[in-house]
Amino acid sequence: MPRFAPFHTAMFSTANTGRVALCAFAAATLAGTIAAHAEDLVVRYDQAQLLRLPKPISEVIVGNSSIADVTIQGANMLVITGKTFGITNIIALDADRNVIQDQRIMVERDSAVVNLHRGTGRQTYSCTPYCHPNLTIGDDQTFFKGVEGQNTSKVGFSEKNTDSDKGSQ
């Protein structure tokens, strides 16, 4: 009959402590999601969110401008746009350089996004309700460049038409 070590000996031996720590780390890593704190401002990728502040703003500091972009809109309102996934913060200062608010910003994926994996390549689509290619950092390079080219052409076409509309008024 096989002998088993008592529970407390098996769980807390040096070798098992390392395995338990490794398993806990792997479980946390594989979970893949970071829980938002109650005080976080959640902004969706490629979307804007308004943040009203109690006092007029003089200056805004962005922790990581590759994650979120911030624009001052009026005396006490910020427009925060999610640029890529991640967590950053913004610090709003008044004219005397006092902190009005230090706000953590969490940029996350919209639920209407679908990822298509082909081998090691990924393609991202926005499906609302029909699926259309979406520019997302980390997508397959050929797919990304194709979507980027189409978006650039679309924006150029729109700007050209807007400029010609202004000239006819």
Question: What this model shows, in words?
Answer:
With 169 residues, this protein is an alpha+beta fold. The protein folds into two domains: 41-108, Immunoglobulin-like (Sandwich); 113-167, no CATH class. The protein has helices at 7-12, 14-31, 141-167; strands at residues 41-44, 48-52, 59-62, 68-72, 77-82, 86-93, 99-108, 113-118, 121-127, 131-133. It is globular.
Structure at a glance:
It contains three helices and ten strands.
Please specify the SSE layout and strand pairing.
Layout: H1 7-12, H2 14-31, E1 41-44, E2 48-52, E3 59-62, E4 68-72, E5 77-82, E6 86-93, E7 99-108, E8 113-118, E9 121-127, E10 131-133, H3 141-167
Parallel strand pairs: 1-7
Antiparallel strand pairs: 2-5, 3-6, 4-5, 6-7, 8-9, 9-10
Strand content: 25-35%
**What share of the residues lie within helices?**
25-40%
Uncertain segments are 1-33
Structural class: alpha+beta
Strands across the major sheet, in which order?
A: 1-7-6-3
Total count of domains = 2
Q: How many DSSP H or I helices? A: 3
Principal-axis shape? globular
Distance between the termini: 95 Å
Rg (C-alpha, Å)? 24 Å
CATH fold descriptor of the largest domain: Immunoglobulin-like
